[in-house]
């Protein structure tokens, strides 16, 4: 299992923005107030998941609480999603343009910058253009400052020409067309889809396609809750039916999501990380447990016809699946849900049927890609038998 981290220099930039010190005592009034605001943000979102009310973000102190806590919590979810995309032509461009829709304080642009600083993407880029749009002026300003500070603090490693422009604006396809944003290699919509009018997802999907450069990618990432998943799924359907973009991940095969008809189930991933000290301290005060892993749901679409299955040329595409549950331990057997985008299957392996050829079954975890053959259908299960083979890819 991979553990992600954010860099200490990013944490320092976030602390500076919020006029806090790394050493601010947890028992101080300032820190306790911060924890109260983090809790208030959580309550606001729980009460109204479809729209963190405007005034929540326009209050400066609330924005700062968001920056210190939710920004790193959200940002790290981009890392595994980007890992799946690394190696694609969009990250080897000389000129790279990213658009962060509903950017908030620049969460996902900073996530991209963390990857550029780590040297895992855009090594060849000479010019990087970062655009972001948010309906909140305060958020757009925060994004402008945080990204500029990040780039300025890493002049020696981030030796590129930077153009950074975050503006206040609405994610209304009619309005977006007039923003004069060049074609983008990466368009990111993070934790915002749930706040948009789903009646206009069709137009939004067309905008995404038109705004995307050849070889470009769209990442739509959401909080990973049951409520938000329905809207995410609707946008996925609109992009699939109204555009010629290609679904890249998490589904292995394009098609109607097998969970679409199941109102109780939703597809989500979990990322594991080492939270920065300030998040750990806030967790102790709020009772939140971000160190246990963070849920999210996502879709990645590409302009070019490529799928995740092409990463494994030696494996028959029809036998690649994604794990969408944890290993459920029952008496004498383990169970696991896998999905290929068209079909969800409940795998079962009796403990007495464990062999070296299927031992990976016990260590499979949510989000991993797996390959298996030789399963036998028994009632609701597809049984992994002594003769079956099961491997984590
Ligand atoms: C939950 S925050 C997510 C911020 C950031 N992307 C992140 O993940 O941390 C949602 C953001 O979307 C913005 N937003 C919501 N509806 C919008 C709209 N119609 N047009 C532009 N921005 C919008 C809000 O102002 C807010 O900053």
Structure write-up:
The protein contains 11 helices and 17 strands. It is an alpha/beta fold and 393 residues long. The strands form 2 sheets. Strands 1, 2, 3, 4, 5, 6, 7, 8 and 9 form a 9-stranded mixed sheet that branches. Strands 10, 11, 12, 13, 14, 15, 16 and 17 form an 8-stranded mixed sheet that branches. Strand 5, helix 9 and strand 6 form a beta-alpha-beta unit. It is globular, with a radius of gyration of 21 Å. The protein starts with a strand and ends with a strand. The structure holds S-adenosylmethionine. The site of S-adenosylmethionine has 21 residues, from helix 4 and helix 6.
What fraction strand? 15-25%
Instruction: Give the number of domains.
Output: 2
* Net shape: globular
Q: Which secondary-structure class do the elements indicate?
A: alpha/beta
Question: For this structure, what is the CATH homologous superfamily of the largest domain?
Answer: Vaccinia Virus protein VP39
* Strand segment count: 17
CATH topology of the largest domain: Rossmann fold
The level of helicity is 25-40%
The CATH class name of the largest domain reads Alpha Beta
The profile of the biggest β sheet is: 9 strands, mixed
User: What radius of gyration results from the CA coordinates?
Assistant: 21 Å
- The CA-CA distance between the termini, in Å, is 13 Å
Low-confidence stretches: none
Helical segment tally?
Answer: 11
CATH architecture of the largest domain: 3-Layer(aba) Sandwich
Could you report the average pLDDT, rounded to the nearest whole number?
A: 93
Order of helices and strands: EHHHHHEHEHEHEHEHEEHEEEEEEEEE
């Amino acid at each position: 299992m991979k553990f992600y981290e954010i860099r200490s220099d990013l944490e320092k930039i976030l602390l500076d923005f919020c006029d806090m010190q790394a050493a601010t005592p947890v028992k101080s009034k300032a820190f306790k107030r911060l924890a109260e605001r983090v809790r208030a943000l959580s309550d606001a979102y729980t009460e109204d998941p479809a729209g963190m009310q405007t005034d929540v973000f326009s209050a400066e102190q609330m924005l700062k609480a968001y920056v210190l806590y939710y920004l790193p919590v959200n940002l790290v979810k981009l890392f595994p999603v980007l890992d799946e995309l690394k190696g694609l032509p969009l990250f080897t461009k000389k000129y790279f343009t990213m658009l962060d829709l509903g950017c908030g304080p620049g969460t996902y642009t900073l996530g991209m910058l963390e990857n550029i600083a780590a040297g895992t993407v855009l090594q060849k880029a000479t010019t990087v253009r970062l655009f972001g749009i948010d309906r909140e002026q305060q958020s757009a300003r925060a994004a402008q400052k945080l990204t500029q500070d990040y780039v300025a603090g890493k002049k020696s490693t981030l030796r590129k020409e930077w153009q950074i422009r975050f503006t206040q604006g609405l994610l209304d396809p009619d309005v977006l067309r007039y923003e004069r944003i060049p074609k983008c290699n990466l368009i990111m919509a993070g934790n915002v889809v749930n706040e948009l009018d789903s009646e206009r997802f069709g137009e939004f999907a067309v905008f995404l396609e038109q705004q995307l450069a050849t070889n470009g990618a769209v990442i739509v990432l959401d909080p990973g809750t049951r409520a938000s998943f329905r809207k995410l799924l609707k946008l996925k359907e609109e992009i699939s039916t109204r555009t010629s973009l290609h679904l890249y991940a998490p589904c292995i095969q394009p098609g109607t999501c097998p969970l679409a008809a199941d109102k109780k189930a939703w597809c989500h991933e979990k990322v594991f990380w080492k939270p920065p000290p300030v998040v750990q301290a806030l967790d102790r005060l709020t009772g939140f447990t971000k160190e246990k892993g963070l849920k999210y749901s996502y879709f990645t679409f590409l302009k070019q016809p490529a799928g995740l299955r092409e990463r494994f040329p030696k494996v028959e595409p029809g036998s690649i699946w994604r794990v969408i549950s944890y290993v459920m331990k029952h008496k004498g057997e383990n169970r696991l849900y896998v999905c290929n985008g068209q079909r969800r299957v409940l795998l079962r392996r009796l403990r007495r049927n464990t062999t070296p050829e299927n031992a990976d079954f016990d260590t499979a975890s949510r989000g991993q890609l797996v390959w298996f053959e030789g399963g036998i259908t028994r009632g609701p299960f597809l049984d992994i038998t002594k003769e079956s083979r099961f491997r984590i890819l």
